[in-house]
Design brief:
This protein is about 50% helix and about 15% strand. It is of the alpha/beta class and about 300 residues long. Strand 8, helix 8 (about 145-155) and strand 9 form a beta-alpha-beta unit. Helix 9 crosses helix 12 (about 245-260) and helix 9 packs across helix 13 (about 265-280). The chain starts with a strand and ends with a helix. The protein binds nicotinamide-adenine-dinucleotide. The site of nicotinamide-adenine-dinucleotide has 27 residues, from helix 4, strand 7, helix 7 and helix 12.
Length: about 300
Amino acid sequence: MKAVAFVGLGNMGGPMAANLVKAGYAVTGFDPVEAARALATEAGVVVTASAAEAVVGAEVVITMLPSGRHVLDVYQGTAAAPGLLASAPAGALFVDCSTIAVSDARSAAALVVAAGHRALDAPVSGGVVGAAAGTLTLMVGALPADLEAVREVLEPMAGRVVHCGEPGAGQAAKICNNLILGISMIGVSEAFVLGEKLGLSHQALFDVTSTASGQCWALTTNCPVPGPVPTSPANRSYQPGFAAPLMAKDLGLALQAASSAGMSAGLGALAASLYREFAEGNGSGLDFSAIINEIRDAS
Ligand code: NAD
């Protein structure tokens, strides 16, 4: 079995690394936060004193970090910390599961290859619940042979692994999906608030739209009003789920990609600005579906 290093043991990375341990992999890992280190140690990860130490001897190096800047810094190293690219054995498979800009993913892949390693981007969808259950969807940008070389390591974390194209293509698929999701959640929320004003019950509107052409994930899985879908975050005071700041981040990445591709994404821009304002205010600790309350309050 391949030796795996896991850098970034937070809300997502911690349970993902734990699933690799459960599947029998020897996992070394690093995170600067003590609470994350303690949880990972409890799950069987051998936690090292630095990120560079974690990758010594690793055939697969997985990163799950907040942003592209974190990924590029940890790959290249800083004045204070040696980088992963220089510390991993030649030919290591670098798998970045973080959600980052397509341009950063392409820069990261170029650095990995220039250092004599192999690069994959594999952003995920499924949230902390999917990370714990090992049922994430992984959207992979990689050369086909590199994906095949690492597939067995991805499987304990994944319900589905989709090959989207060459490096960067996984991130492209991820932000396109979340562009749809951000816009559709606002559409569903506006429809429920309009329904309230027209005297429709939530259940009646749900019963129609969930089987009519308005059907979508934002409605049938993450319904923004309590009642029709008992497992949706609306039934637990909008505890995430998928937090509003993460949606604001992903819509920002989608707009950045649209702008560099010369595309005008009108609804995406509006959704991004609504989510940014919400994430910086009332929505900072809430599921992204709680935007319905802002829409209602503004009406
Ligand atoms: P998190 O903040 O819980 O975890 C990130 C971890 O990276 C933190 O523990 C942090 O201490 C660690 N870190 C920062 N700098 C580091 C370094 N130099 N070396 C090692 N570790 C370092 O965030 P998260 O929710 O786990 O999200 C991680 C990534 O996954 C993000 O890119 C996010 O957009 C994406 N994502 C999150 C979700 C979700 O529901 N939380 C869903 C899909 C994708």
